[in-house]
Every structure is written in structure tokens, then in C-alpha cells.
Amino acid sequence: MSTTAAAHDTTYPAPAGPRLRAVPPLPADVPPTETLWWARLLRRGPGPVEYSLVAVNSDRFPDGTPVDMTAVDARGRRPAGWVVDVRHRAADGRVTRIEVAEELADRCPPMWFAELHHASSALPATSLLAYRGPAFAPGALVGPHELAAAGVRPADRIGEVRWWTRSGLVDAVTVAPVYRRRGVARTLVTAAEGLRFLRGWAPLRSDGRLTDAGAGWLASAPAVWRPRLAERTEVLPAEETDAGPTGVARLLR
Questions:
Q1: What is the 3-state secondary structure (H, E, C) of 58-108?
Q2: Distance between CA 72 and CA 154 in Å, rounded?
Q3: Quick one: pLDDT at residue 160?
Q4: Region Disordered: which residues (predicted)?
Q5: pTM of the full predicted structure?
Q6: Which of 78, 148, 204, 232 has its CA 20 to 30 Å from the CA of residue 248?
Q7: What is the domain extent for residue 175?
Q8: Cα dihedral 76, 79, 81, 82 sign
Q9: What was the pLDDT predicted at 13?
């Protein structure tokens, strides 16, 4: 090594290796919360102005709190922990799309929905029906007249949730046999919960009358649903056949 090079190394020592900093372990998963609050978001686009009513499962606001977030265009974003998004037109309130978070939809196939009101019922009752097929876009919500105009048959539905409008008590959850164990009922009931809030109806709930399958679901239900699901007080028979849909109180498979 030349004298000049040695002097250079003495004056400018070789750079030290990268400094490693101890990093604390990642925090444990945040425990699930039973809190469900509601965000109202503004959606702007090339068409008519729309709003989104979004159920959010987080402790950011107290349970049941409606929060107006329309001051800023959401630009397609939703609050962290969102569960269901009911999108509707500002002009007339017509629902244009219902979307359930992927974490809840699980392996559920794309579905569209029909809202029916049971005029012959002694107490006001509503059904939300789930369908597959090309008649309407996934997530669309239609009424009975649109169903008839599109030639959709009652046998084409793959699931239904029926509840008493004033009390929110779920009367029946049904799923076609081929679609069971795929999250169809969970998706359908979550969509119904978003719709009922938009309509100003009572929260959906159960009354403790459950089959073994319903009780099994209750034991593993998402935390957000547990305050709505009463502990089992009456054992209902399965009454399940391979040919028909699930019957009363088979929540929520």
C-alpha cells in the first residue's frame, strides 16, 4: 500500500456496517369488539350523487352511533372494520348496491337481493331474498315487480331471511342445500341488518329458540352479532331434509 493510500485510510476510516435496532414484538391481535356504529359517506361519480350507509365494527364510536362523514368525498374508501355497505341514491333513497365485507362473505357466491314485504302477515314482516344468475348485477336490490319483469322464479332463490319489522325478531333463515356451509346465511343476514338500519327498523335479533345447528353457530358467531343472539332457551327439532331449505331458526350457517 502506498504512503498516500495509507494516509487516506487513516483520515477516512471504512464505513461501519449497518446499525441494527431492536424492534419490540408485534402487538397481539386486537380482541374482537361487539361495537357496531354507522357511517354515512358521500359517493360522487359520473352518475347521480349517492350515499353509502356503512356498518363499522370498531370501538371508534359507541355502539349504534350514526356518524355523518359526508363533508368529504370518500372516493370509494370505507372506515377500517366495515361490515356492510348499503349504497343508495341521494335523490330518492333507492338502494343501488349492498356489499358485505369479504371476511364475512367467506366462500359465498356472488348474489343479488330482493326485498319483499308480507302484506298478509298479522304483524309487519319483511324478507330479504338472495339469488344468483345474470338477471341483475351482484349486490343489486330489487322489488317484486322487477323480479316478475325479469322472469325470475321463486325456485331460483338460494336463501332468505324473514323477520318481524317492528321487533327485529328473526323468524326464519333458509338456505338451499347446495349452498349451505358457504357463508350464504351470514352474508344474507348481514345485508339485512344494513337494510333495516337504512329503513329505520329495529335491529335484527333472535329469541333463544334454536336448533342444534343454530346453537353451534351461536357458539362461534362473530363478536358483533353476539349481543343480538339470545342464549338458547328452547331446543327446536332439526326438521331438515336433503330436498328442502333449512327451516326456522337455523341461524346463521
A1: CCCCCCCCEEEEEEEECCCCCCCCEEEEEEEECCCCCEEEEEECHHHHCCC
A2: 42
A3: 95
A4: 1-21
A5: 0.80
A6: 148
A7: 32-235
A8: negative
A9: 54
Taking the C-alpha atoms of residue 228 and residue 140, their distance in angstroms, rounded to an integer, is: 26
d(CA 41, CA 87): 9
What pLDDT sits at residue 154? 80
What was the pLDDT predicted at 149?
96
What integer pLDDT is reported at residue 181 of this predicted model? Answer: 84
Does residue 104 fall inside a structural domain? yes
Backbone CA torsion sign across 236, 242, 246, 251:
positive
Q: What's the domain count of the chain?
A: 1
- Mean pLDDT of successive 10-residue segments in the chain (253 residues)? 51 51 48 88 87 95 94 85 95 96 88 93 92 95 95 90 94 89 90 97 86 69 75 70 40 38
* Residue 172 resides in a domain: yes
Residue 245 lies in a domain: no
**Contact status, residue 168 vs residue 201, Cβ threshold 8 Å:** yes
Q: Residue 18 falls within a domain, yes or no?
A: no
